[in-house]
Design a protein that fits this description.
- By secondary structure, the chain is an all-alpha fold.
- It has helices at residues 2-16, 21-63, 79-82.
- The longest helix has 43 residues, at 21-63.
- The chain is rod-shaped, with a radius of gyration of 36 Å.
- It starts with a helix and ends with a helix.
Amino acid sequence: MRAIQNLLMRAKLALSNKKGEAYVGEAVKILIAVVVGIVLLTGLYFLFTRVVMPELGDTIRGLFNTAGDIGGNVGPVNESIVGG
């Protein structure tokens, strides 16, 4: 009988103990911060891969688009000046 009362008393103390609640609250805060961080990083990734990088690539290609000419693209040759 004494063992059962002792067991019930220990169970009651364990259930009324609120020490672990702070750890659960902190864990939830950390989990929310991780999820928000993942969402922000995913948004930035898609922004850069879909918008920024293609435009940057087009700009760089435009800067270096000289069509193989050493002096750059000087335009079409006027046949009347050359004598042709």
